[in-house]
Amino acid sequence: MIENDSSENISDDFQHRPTAQETKRKGTTARLFDEMLRLIESGTWGVSEAIPSERTLMKDFQVSRIAVREALSMLKALGVLNISHGKSTTVCKMSSETLAKLFPLMLSMEGEQSLMHVFEVRLGLELQTARLAARKRTTEDLNRLTALVKRFDSYDTDTPESIEADHQFHVQIAKATGNPLFWVLLNILGSYVKFAQRESGKHDPEQHHRASQAHHAILQAITERDPEKSQQEMEKHLRDAHLITVTPA
Fold it and tell me: Residue 119: its pLDDT value, please?
């Protein structure tokens, strides 16, 4: 007996299966995206410089206008290109803020273990920044760190403002090393740490007080130019903060 072959019984996968033309276009777009990205990475398309017009790109890469526009849109979504109607498309300078916005989303797709991965990387990174900051800090660095410690102390528990003050304290320590790579990386990692802190929903005045004490201890060690002590105090602080964030409420 022949079953009812109404289109309602056709699977969603079959109904939405892309055509050969759509598949080919997507493949062309992906290839074009990679090639454009390589031109930017190599400096062929320089920062703040205008890239070739759509017509030129179509001719150079032998692709359709649709593929060009899709690839350009993908690069714009990543914050790599600035596209304005009536003006030339230019290459943007990638900032840590741009990467910081994407980082929590990337890690949220990796599963619950992601927070541990971030902690392990952050631990290695910040023990080094604490040591170097103690050696290289300036009076201006100390003034900024002191102001951030006071700002954090002005709150009694975790709030978006106190979490940001905590984050900026760690970033400023990284800046005090004089190595820009440290604070760029920490700023990116910190975006996920802030996300995890907010999502934990914990508002523990006692934990906030311990964090405040840790900030003072780290600042004191950096002030005294004591690399070993700075590293020890930073490790204690990070381990305590991580334990509080991952422990169920």
Answer: 85
Domain annotation for the chain: domains and CATH numbers:
13-91 (1.10.10.10), 97-246 (1.20.120.530)
Phi, psi of 12 (to 5 degrees): -60, -35
Closest to 210 in 3D by CA, of 190, 237, 246: 237
CB 103 within 8 A of CB 188: yes
Structure tokens at 235: 């490790």
* C-beta separation of 26 from 18 below 8 A: yes
Enter the pTM of the model. 0.62
Rounded-to-integer distance, Cα 226 and Cα 185, Å: 24
User: Which residues 6+ apart lie within 8 Å of 147 measured at CB?
Assistant: none
Residue 67 CA, chain-centre distance (Å), reads 28
Q: What is the mean pLDDT of each run of 10 residues along the chain (249 residues)?
A: 43 48 71 92 91 95 93 87 88 71 59 70 94 97 97 91 92 94 84 68 80 97 98 95 58
